[in-house]
Amino acid sequence: MQCHIISMDQIKTDQIKTVCVYCGSGPGSSPSFVEAALALGKAFAENNIRLVYGGGSVGLMGAVAKSTLDHGGLVTGIIPDFLKSREHALSRVQEMIVTPDMHERKRLMFEHSDAFVALPGGIGTLEELVEQMTWQQLGRHSKPVLLANIDGFWEPLIALLAHMRETEFIRPALDIDILKAERVEDIVPRLRAAAARAPEGSKEMAPELARKL
Length: 213
Prior knowledge:
The chain is of the alpha/beta class. The protein has a single domain (8-212), classed as Rossmann fold (3-Layer(aba) Sandwich), CATH 3.40.50. The chain has 7 helices and 7 strands. The protein has a 7-stranded parallel sheet with strand order 4-3-2-1-5-6-7, with helices on both faces. β5, α4 (123-137) and β6 (145-148) form a beta-alpha-beta unit. α1 (31-46) packs parallel to α2. The relative contact order is 0.18. Mean pLDDT is 89; it is low at 1-13 and 206-213.
């Protein structure tokens, strides 16, 4: 869970142009969760980073998207047809992609994004996050994946990953490089630092994996 430090003059800021945010369709129990989503949207707009997200207007999803838009940023929403009404698709976004199912949604979210951030959320958020972790572990991409550990929300998952290492189900050759940030202001710099370390030509999913989604 460590973030390697790299000097900012080594980082090409154009390496992160789009970031996919996984997060809850509800606000959660703590005001800090919504505050973090609002601050992250503002940070994306100020850094000319396009938000890619699940397309809804409710919960943390709506908060991060509306904040990005309110501060002059760009947003791509990707939502399955059956969730358009349930999650109240946000009509304000510059681009809304409607997919026939969840598999297509996740594939397009991957293809449209240079990095991934997980804000607090429920089972869907966890599933999307773990899928990116799995693909990274299998060498199918090297895009940065970051846990926005607001109020320690992701500590149980971090402890579980440590337990998996201790019990040798995550072996050294199959370890994963998951970033973590407790403060929203650290998220963009850490994503950029991680992108600068990634090998050239290694950020795209293998075609055979994309076809299986």
